[in-house]
Each structure stands twice: as structure tokens, then as C-alpha cells.
Amino acid sequence: MSITGGFLILFLLFHATMNLVAVFSPEGYNAICHFLGANWYALAASLILAGGFLIHILLSFALTLYNKKARGNQHYAKVVRPKEVLWASKNMLILGFIIVGFIGLHLWQFWAKMQLVEILGHHEVAIGGMLISPTDGASLIQYYFSNPCYSILYLVWFVALWYHLNHGFWSAFQTIGWNNQLWLPRLQCIGKLVATYICFAFALVVIVFYIKSIMCGGAC
Fold first, then answer.
1. Residue 75's pLDDT is what?
2. How many whole angstroms separate alpha carbon 121 and alpha carbon 119?
3. Which of these, 49, 103, 122, 213, could form a disulfide with 146 (CB 3.0-4.6 Å)?
4. pLDDT tens digits for 75-126?
């Protein structure tokens, strides 16, 4: 769980930084999308990413069942949660369900209309009554985030993601033993910074493109 989680955090750092490019230069973002299209290296990376994600999900269920079995049917009459036990640590599986659900939406809206289209050998994809290149990621972002419902849903997703990452970052180091009384507070601080950067970068793209659509009157 710790190793696959760390791997996924590295991917999210890259993905969030990549998406930020769209805010400042849609052309630059499309150039990145073209570079990361259906090329062999991008496909290999996608398969590795999918494998890591699948392993992370399966292990989360396995560990949840293991913990439940270890507790048995006996429950405390009163449960007192220490202050150092975070809410996120008790609800990582629930947060995971929310995140996985939105990943499905995200794959349908973006990956299925970009890399998958290229894999199938097509050179155009239809969105909103128009045909665009599967490497025109900026147009896809503008199309979906001009919709207030999608924009709000994604922002809710990023909140859940922040809690999941915030706890997952430092607990990963704790699990593999790379922490002590001196470093645990530091890792918790770094975890907050990493989670905040990732989610802020993603949220900024949504907010900027939604505001842009309002200013353009939906004609962007």
C-alpha cells in the first residue's frame, strides 16, 4: 500500500504540474498532450500506472478486511479516539471510494477521448457538436469545465483527494519505518504541502477555465 501510494503521489505531482501549463499556455499544454499521446513510452507508462492503481485498490480492500477480522465481533462500549488519530485515517476507504468514482468520470471525459481515440486509430473526436484532435486537451478542459455541475463535482473530488493524500503521504513513510519522533511531524507537514499543491493545481485549472467560459459567454 505504501509503495504503490507513493508511486501514485509522484504521478499526481506530474499530472498536476502538467495541467497547470493549460492555465498559462493552452498551446503548450496541447504540445504535452501530443507528446504523451499513443506513443509506446506513454502506453507503457499508462499500463504501469494502471497496474499500480489496481494493486493499491486491491490491497486497500485486503487490509480493511484484515483489520476487521482482527477486531472480531467484539466492540468497545465506548470509543475514544486520541487526538493524534486523524479523521482521514479512519475513513481512507470511504475517501478511496469517492476518488475511484471520480477517476471513472475523469477517464471517460479525457482519457477515452484522447489516448484511447489515438489507440483506436482515429484522428478526431466529437465534443459539443464539433470535431477536435485527440491531442487538443485544452479544448476538452474548456468544454467540460464550462459546465458548473462538472466544475463543482471536480472541486468536491479534490477535497476528498486532499484528505486522502494528506494522510497517505506521511503514513506511507511511517509504514515502511522511515520516520521517528523527530521526522514524523516534518513528514506530516510535508504531506500537507504536497497534498495542497496537487489539489490546488487541479482546482486552479477548473476555476480558471470556468471563469474563462463565463467571461466568453460560453463561446470559448
1. 54
2. 5
3. 213
4. 545 444 445 446 666 667 777 788 888 889 999 999 999 999 999 999 999 9
pTM of the model: 0.84
Q: Which domains does the chain have, with CATH numbers?
A: 2-215 (1.20.1300)
Contact 148, 46 (CB under 8 A): no
Residue with cell 489515438: 118
| String of DSSP letters for 85-104 | S-HHHHSHHHHHHHHHHHHH
Cell of 150: 462538472
**Residue with cell string 486523524:** 86
Expressed in percent and rounded to 5, the helix, strand and coil fractions of the chain are: 75, 5, 25
Burial of 204 (0-12, 13-18, 19+ CB in 10 A): middle
Q: Report d(CA 31, CA 188) in Å as an integer.
A: 36
Say if residues 46 and 115 touch (Cβ distance below 8 Å).
yes
The whole-angstrom separation of Cα 161 and Cα 99 is 6
